[in-house]
Amino acid sequence: SCRPHLYAHAHVDLSPMLGPMEGDLAAPIDLGSLHPELLKEVQHVVIAREDLLLHVNEIIGR
Length: 62
Prior knowledge:
Layout: H1 36-42
Protein name: Interphotoreceptor retinoid binding protein
Organism: Cirrhinus mrigala (Mrigala)
């Protein structure tokens, strides 16, 4: 699933943007609960919130 970059001081919940069946796919993540070494390993693959284009009503790709 696509998720916006979550900063340590922010808590983003996409559930209101999605339909009732899709809400579980967008459960918010608390970065404080993740291991710091894990965050360091994935920081280069996280998409910043301002760079994310979210399509909730379209099917893209194959």
